[in-house]
Specification:
5-stranded parallel beta sheet; about 270 residues; alpha/beta; about 30% strand; 7 helices; OB fold (Dihydrolipoamide Acetyltransferase, E2P); 17 strands
Length: about 270
């Protein structure tokens, strides 16, 4: 069996990853953590084969935890979880490091598990371990959307009270609490408020990261919805649902089958 510890401060993300990994008969989840220091302690105590680390966690971020773990255990395999766009995290695809984009995709998780199996069959040598450690610094450099403290080496997720978007003749500052939902059409991403739709240059993944401290749920590959505006959850087709919002137009947001369980758990349905 391949032993795994999952560290993520988001209950929905943690539950979703746990569910997907449990589909693999040779994977055993031996522990979970909700913040960085707890993750560090549990992993060092339980000594799993693999640690799944969220990039942003309280106390210690995932990258700091990874560096500390590698100093203690050179045999540990690490997989990062992140909401970042693939172009911003190409450094993850080096040596034994892997990454999973949020929301998790079952096919991608299975690919990660296969990489883990290969890692168990063919352990890293000293030169690979050194390259693995060095690649962590490359990851930090590539995350230009975050500010990095030179004193601590920790990554700080941006905290926003307003979101800047392009209006017709000016830049408009939107309160995230006024956003009903965010959606993507082809390559374009839009932000819907109660009375207007704004175009944004942000990717959906970037907006999910920026809005992480607000009650937004990734209901569909192309939708983020503000749960504060949800009025009804209506069955639709083939296990999918539709959310009816409480604005005047009773806006509708689709919930794909892959996200229904997480939403029901969140709403305690």
């Amino acid at each position: 069996m391949i032993s795994v510890v999952i560290a993520d401060d988001e209950p929905l993300a943690r539950d979703e990853l746990t569910y997907l990994l449990k589909q693999c008969k040779d994977i055993e989840i031996v522990g979970e953590a909700t913040q960085g220091t707890e993750a560090l302690e549990k992993i060092l105590t339980l000594k799993p084969d693999v640690a799944f680390l969220d990039i942003h966690m309280p106390n210690l971020d995932g990258l700091t935890v990874a560096r500390k773990l590698l100093e203690e255990d050179q045999t540990l395999m690490i997989v990062f979880a992140t909401a970042y766009d693939k172009h911003a995290i190409q450094a993850f695809e080096v040596n034994a490091i892997d990454y999973l984009l949020k929301p998790f995709d079952q096919e991608r998780v299975l690919k990660t598990v296969e990489r883990i199996r290969q890692g168990v069959r063919h352990p890293k040598n000293d030169s690979q371990n050194e390259a693995l450690h060095n690649s962590l610094m490359d990851i930090l450099k590539k995350m230009g959307r975050e500010s990095i403290s030179a004193a601590t080496g920790q990554v700080r997720a941006p905290k926003i009270s307003k979101l800047a978007v392009q209006g017709e003749d000016s830049v408009v500052l939107i309160d995230p609490q006024d956003i009903l939902y965010v959606y993507r059409e082809n390559r374009d991403v839009f932000i819907k408020t109660t009375n207007k739709v704004y175009t944004t240059k942000y990717t959906l993944q970037t907006l999910e990261e920026k809005l992480a401290s607000y009650p937004f749920f990734h209901a569909h590959r192309s939708y983020l919805v503000n749960l504060n505006f949800v009025h009804e959850l209506v069955p639709w087709f083939n296990g999918a649902y539709t959310l009816i919002l409480n604005d005047e137009k009773r806006s509708k947001v689709p919930v794909s089958r892959a996200y229904v369980k997480a939403l029901k758990d969140l709403l305690e349905i």
